[in-house]
Automatic annotation (TrEMBL):
This is Uncharacterized protein. InterPro entries: DUF7019. NCBIfam families: SAVMC3_10250 (NF040893). Pfam families: DUF7019 (PF22880).
Length: 211
């Protein structure tokens, strides 16, 4: 998978998956440095800068590929890899960033915390009373705010379709790997009378500009 520039990396998801591959790696950098005991007690991980972050990410991606857990947008596995023209931006009150795009057969939406956008300034921890943007209730609530001026229906896949149609601005070609959250037939078949479309909602491990 090639890319020029990372836009988004979820260190939390990478660390969670890495701890399942090799538990000691969750407490040590890939270079083998010893963890800070204070950070360990606080449930935080020590990273040796950007190089360590990306090395950890690549190790997780190799593991997902080796296990057969990494699928494509039009035939998703538990995790999905794709390269698509996409639009993106903050959603609702700004806690969630949303990436929306289309393949030939699938309407794709990816939502996660703006705290994982690499260029964004963020607090080290989120307030306990506000769930992370990648959690389903918060994500769908904020997608609903983006997609409609008034009340929307309860159908989550329909919310993704409306959210994509509400995005504005130029599309860029992006590469991503995301955890599959929802996948199913488009609830508005009348919008695509020629061929059936499916809808995919995911929570990204990373998003990058693609060559």
């Amino acid at each position: 998978m090639s890319f020029r520039h990372y836009l988004y990396v979820s260190d939390a998801k990478v660390d969670m998956l890495l701890s399942r591959i090799a538990p000691e790696s969750a407490l040590m950098g890939t270079a083998g440095t010893s963890p800070d005991p204070t950070a360990v007690e606080a449930g935080r991980h020590v990273h040796d800068g950007a190089a360590d972050r990306f090395a950890r990410l690549q190790r997780v991606l190799r593991h997902l590929g080796d296990r057969g857990d990494l699928g494509e947008v039009d035939g998703p596995a538990p995790y999905v890899h794709g390269v698509l023209p996409m639009q993106w931006g903050p959603v609702g009150d700004g806690d969630t960033v949303y990436f929306g795009g289309y393949s030939d057969r699938t309407i794709v939406g990816l939502g996660g915390s703006t705290g994982h956008v690499l260029s964004a300034a963020r607090a080290e921890t989120q307030p306990a009373h506000r769930p992370a943007g990648s959690l389903m209730p918060a994500l769908l609530h904020q997608l609903a705010e983006l997609a409609a001026e008034d009340t929307v229906g309860p159908d989550a896949l329909g919310t993704v379709v409306r959210a994509n149609s509400a995005l504005r601005g130029p599309a860029r070609r992006l590469e991503f790997v995301a955890q599959r959250i929802l996948h199913g037939p488009c609830p508005y078949p009348e919008l695509y009378p020629v061929e059936e479309r499916t809808v995919l909602l995911g929570s990204p491990l990373y998003v990058a500009l693609a060559e």
